[in-house]
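Quick illustration, no need to memorize.
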Amino acid sequence: TGTSAGAVRFRFLLLALDLLTISFFVLLSMTGYDAGWLIGADIALAVYVLADLAARFAIARSRRKFFLELTTVADLVVVASLLIAPFVQSLAFLRVLRALRLLRSYHMARDLRRMYPFFRRHETVIHAVINLLVFIFLVSALVLVLQLGRNDQINNYVDALYFTVTTLTTTGFGDIILTGTGGRLLSVAIMVIGVALFLRLLQTIFRPPHVQHRCPDCGLTEHDRDAVHCKHCGRVIDIETDGD
């Protein structure tokens, strides 16, 4: 939570480790879980996630609320999936819930705003892209967990990812379909929720909800598109618009 250079480097290291572990899980699904060394790797990753949980618990302002946070619940599920993966392989991809950690930290966002002007200018778009990518990752994992062993068309994470993306974009080639009532309901959820996120992303890119305009009094640079007064100091501001 610190602001020193060492604290910033440590947070970027954690982000890099999260990206590496998620990539490892995806690659693992394409090779299977037969290698004996994978049990040791699962235990090592479980210890790493538990250590991260313990550190965040130690500095939490409210330890009761800590266990109600989405990222905490997700990490607990990840630990459980790592420990039971050798016995229940179909639940192994619940570990992709670790993706919820990506850029969810206020401190990480603060670091990126301060260090990279590009992130500061396009933060809304970047967050929208990340939300969509995390949704795709998690839904693909859910498709794999529910269909692996029951659907001959889905044998690894890539198959589940392919189905999710084609459904999300309403392309629907039809070469992979989900079986059973649960599979069909999941397909409906992907189309309804996913398409809404996809349209939200497009709207954010081509018609962002905020515009960059510096208030001459307080210096606030982000305002609503139709703002007449600065929301911070109340000064009348003149934002150029295209009339829409």
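The chain has a mean pLDDT of 77.
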